[in-house]
Design goal:
Chain lengths: ~110, ~120
């Protein structure tokens, strides 16, 4: 079983749609969780951290369920510029980040 | 925000040659730098963790004699791919963690290596 699992997609959605990505992780000792965004041929950029209480940043909402070892990202009112690959990232040890395969989102006009 | 640079951004080399990639933290001091590799349509895979002034810690399956890492200062780490072969062609990305030792890592823009 992979340490961090994501549905690779692609998710093809129209502008304005709401889309949700899910991620599961295998190590219950994981300490921190993040969503990163990666554009084609670019480095990943931190989108947001994920907290147990859930957190929201504009159109983006992230949630963590430690009991189920499950992380989600919700994007509301999708924009064309949201098209990218979204990486679920789990922090395991001193600085060790484990990346999921990523979920590709294509927002169509 | 913290800025990490990588040089070169892309390199094409012949099989058997060695390639050095530099990773620099431009506006902060990085006690720890990380080297990742990403093959097409795959996730980033951690290759090694580099601590300033000490030997790098390599992940399982990564050959330390092939991927030489040097972290001589708090702002510079280098990765040398020795005797590169076509299967080493990949996107190499470094990241740096600051002295505040939070979980946040700042990523460099990556180096695309193509070995002919």
């Amino acid at each position: 079983r992979k340490e961090v699992e994501q549905d690779p997609g692609p998710f093809n959605v129209p502008e304005g749609a709401t889309v949700a990505f899910n991620c599961t992780y295998s190590n219950s000792a994981s300490q921190s969780f993040f969503w990163y965004r990666q554009d084609c041929r670019k480095e990943p950029k931190l989108l947001m951290s994920v907290y147990s209480s859930g957190n929201e940043d504009g159109r983006f909402t992230a949630q963590l369920n430690r009991a189920s070892q499950y992380i989600s990202l919700l994007i509301r009112d999708s924009k064309l510029s949201d098209s990218a690959t979204y990486l679920c990232v789990v922090h395991y040890g001193p600085g060790k980040l484990i990346f999921g395969q990523g979920t590709t989102l294509q927002v169509k006009p | 925000g913290a800025v990490v640079s990588q040089h070169p951004s892309w390199v094409i080399c012949k099989s058997g040659t060695s390639v050095k990639i530099e990773c620099r933290s431009l506006d902060f001091q990085a006690t720890t730098m990380f080297w990742y590799r990403q093959f097409p349509k795959q996730s980033l895979m951690l290759m090694a963790t580099s601590n300033e002034g000490s030997k790098a810690t390599y992940e399982q399956g990564v050959e330390k004699d092939k991927f030489l890492i040097n972290h001589a200062s708090l702002t510079l780490s280098t990765l040398t791919v020795t005797s590169a072969h076509p299967e080493d062609s990949s996107f190499y990305i470094c990241s740096a963690r600051g002295l505040d030792s939070t979980d946040t890592q700042y990523f460099g823009p990556g180096t695309r290596l193509t070995v002919l």
